Amino acid sequence: MQQFEVNFDGLVGPTHNYAGLSVGNVASQSNANAVSNPKEAAKQGLAKMKALADMGMKQGVLAPQERPDVAALRRLGFTGSDGNVLKSAAKQAPQVFLACCSASSMWTANAATVSPGADTADGRIHFTPANLTNKFHRSLEPEVTGRILKATFANEKYFAHHTHLPDNEHFGDEGAANHTRLCRNYGSAGVELFVYGRYAFDSSKPAPSRYPARQTLEASQAVARLHGLDDDGVVYIQQNPDVIDQGVFHNDVIAVGNQNVLFFHEQAFLNTPAVLTEIRRKFDDHPLHFIEVPTSQVSVLDAVSTYLFNTQIITLSDNHMAIIAPSECEENPAVSSYLESLLAMDTPIKEVKFFNVKQSMRNGGGPACLRLRVAMTEQELNATNPRTLMNDILFARLNQWVEKHYRDRLSEQDLADPALLDESRTALDELTQIMHLGSIYPFQQSAL
């Protein structure tokens, strides 16, 4: 039976904006309050999805969340019509209002942690939405994320869905942005790497001092338990506190893995030699490629500004992998030079493909942020909602939908416009019909 890694990319929503909400995310903060282009952002994301599908990859689409989050604003005491809620929140609590308008759900690497059936005790694919407690604007996402995942992966014979972890900083969970998996092939048992920034219950352990460590060890351990993972198939790795303080807010900004390749910066982890030894042992002595990028060739600053590690490594054929990189990597002399030298090394990575995802990059996320990875068998893929899988028909339909509903210019002031909310809800309601998702949004459920 065939096995695949399917990338489910987040579709950029109709209210895509730059609010600079994410402390510790340098790109996000540096572009705060800039005018965004939702139409261009959505089409850039769709173009990347279609390009990967055309390469022979299996590619899926995850729906965006509704923003502004009127339901959250009502929970915070704003009342009246939806229009009055928006206007009073924008006037009385502008920072809270902007948080409830965040475009962050487009980065589906944070949507959930996924363990394939080859790793789990019951043989099903397990999904746990990330609680994202470190940032208020992201903590609004898990409930709707869970609905989207259940609508996409609905067959209980193959898929198991868990409630997100308790909404408390002790169990701060950032999803697949701090999780990767190494394996011989996608259908065989692998080694799941959980990278955490701090211990929640032991303040004597190393931790960053400038920026927050968003993922805790205890959260990672809880997800592994929920997914029924064997201890011999799990490695817990502490992220280097120094790189968190340099703007590496998630592990996928400093490391990425695919099958038997782990591509990482030399400053990525604490106790790197011990970490690599444990991975080798648990990988059962099968061939592994550890590609460690030295600081002398690529600084942490260059890695963060170009998102060299927030790239996708995809397998195109046996022993032939490609890196899907943002165009910023090509434009940076040090990073471009390193990637050229990488292709001459004795590793499975044989080519680099550059993509323009600048609308996402300006808001703090590269190609890897945009996708949730799901290793699947052919049967599991056949059990997935077919209307969420990229093909020529869906690509054309979604581009038409974007052209019809999205603005090409959006400022911070526009977010309080009730007309924008109406436009967005009309678009999202139509999207759920296109993708056969049912009533996943609060505004749809309140109308039932």
Describe it for me?
The strands form five sheets. The protein has a three-stranded mixed beta sheet with strand order 2-1-15, sandwiched between helices. Strands 3-4-5 form a three-stranded mixed beta sheet. Strands 6-7-8 form a three-stranded mixed beta sheet, sandwiched between helices. The model is unreliable at about 20-30 (pLDDT under 50). It has one domain: L-arginine/glycine Amidinotransferase, Chain A (5-stranded Propeller). Helix content is about 35%, strand content about 20%. It has helices at about 25-30, 40-55, 70-75, 80-90, 95-100, 135-140, 140-150, 215-225, 240-245, 270-280, 300-305, 325-330, 335-340, 360, 380, 390-405, 420-435, 440-445, and strands at about 5-10, 60, 110-115, 125-130, 160, 180, 190-195, 235-240, 255-260, 260-265, 290-295, 310-315, 320-325, 350-355, 370-375. The longest helix is centred in the first third of the chain and has 17 residues, at about 40-55.
**What is the helical fraction, as a range of percent?**
25-40%
What general form does the structure show? Answer: globular
- The CATH class turns out to be Alpha Beta
CATH topology descriptor:
L-arginine/glycine Amidinotransferase, Chain A
